[in-house]
Specification:
89 residues; mainly alpha
């Protein structure tokens, strides 16, 4: 359940980044840039989630690495699709 909430939080955060891209630039390249900036930020948040899983939940790094992969990949793939769509426009 926690993993699903973190993934949904990532997609919502992507929406916030795209909203700020719309507010600051309003152009398609600005939205693509906002999605590109989201990816390293989301990687940092995902790594922080791994750290919490290891230090608070008592899991090992080996147990948390597959979770990190999924938690990072799903919103990052959505961002990559958004970047691709904005680049086509």
């Amino acid at each position: 359940m926690h993993m699903l909430m973190v993934i949904i939080g990532g997609v919502v955060l992507l929406g916030v980044f795209l909203l700020f891209g719309q507010l600051w630039g309003g152009t398609t390249p600005a939205l693509a840039t906002a999605a590109k900036v989201f990816i390293p930020v989301w990687l940092a948040v995902s790594i922080a989630n791994l750290w919490v899983g290891v230090n608070r939940a008592g899991n090992t790094v080996a147990q948390e690495l597959p979770i990190l992969a999924v938690v990072f990949a799903v919103p990052a793939i959505v961002a990559a699709i958004a970047i691709w769509q904005f680049a086509r426009s």
